[in-house]
Amino acid sequence: xxxxxxxxxxxxxxxxxxxxxxxxxxxxxxxxxxxxxxxxxxxxxxxxxxxxxxxxxxxxxxxxxxxxxxxxxxxxxxxxxxxxxxxxxxxxxxxxxxxxxxxxxxxxxxxxxxxxxxxxxxxxxxxxxxxxxxxxxxxxxxxxxxxxxxxxxxxxxxxxxxxxxxxxxxxxxxxxxxxxxxxxxxxxxxxxxxxxxxxxxxxxxxxxxxxxxxxxxxxxxxxxxxxxxxxxxxxxxxxxxxxxxxxxxxxxxxxxxxxxxxxxxxxxxxxxxxxxxxxxxxxxxxxxxxxxxxxxxxxxxxxxxxxxxxxxxxxxxxxxxxxxxxx
Length: 327
Hints:
Layout: H1 6-17, E1 24-28, H2 35-48, H3 66-73, E2 80-83, H4 100-110, E3 120-125, H5 132-143, E4 149-155, H6 163-167, E5 170-173, H7 179-189, H8 195-205, H9 209-216, H10 220-233, H11 239-248, H12 254-274, H13 280-299, H14 304-316, H15 320-326
Parallel strand pairs: 1-4, 1-5, 2-3, 3-4
């Protein structure tokens, strides 16, 4: 289920309805925005509909020709071609790049006549993953595109692409979704979550739907419990802080670290309400320390484990035993 991107859908449908469909579209934006799903919807629409230019006001999700739609549903439509990184041998790990041979195989398919329908859709997800030779081969095809062929190039980092590839495409930019839209959408998908959890996840996601869904698996309530345990018990043997550092360290756990950073203000506000007035100033001081830690990490090398451990240190300073020892 997609959320947002009505502007991208409108732009595509207007071009199709007007009979002026550009042959290549660059779908640009942060990872997790739903660009790949959008590409699939566009490709499905193309192979299940007619020539375009008829002015009909329809949605990308209009089913169109039923026989063609059934082939798409089964993953067997011959005019939808996909380029993506493939698994290495029998391992689950994906290859580092989309290879030149994959691009060549796709180009050979383009030399064949359409076997069904009036359009062929090529999805490259992502074009960022192309080998240099593969990117150059794709460029030549974009420069002399076959008739009735639409290229949908998904990119998380369009600035890194060959300028000549970008210049051959019409760009659709996928912007982060507003919180006011994300919150009810996410709560509708996961109604069992408390609204406080939903808001924390939405805030940490930065408006990226895929990231929000991934954060659900992080268990916000459990993370809050861990952070509160450090703030109330002091973690004298560093076990909780070390575990926190492991959970948020590394590129793959960046979203979890951002969730922790988003949880901390609410946790500190809760402590400020529950503790004596004399302890409010130390709480505010630790929040300032957390902010400095995050700023320094962004300016320098981004070490998630270090940031997580330092956030744990800030919370540990607020434990009653730590406060008494300091005095």
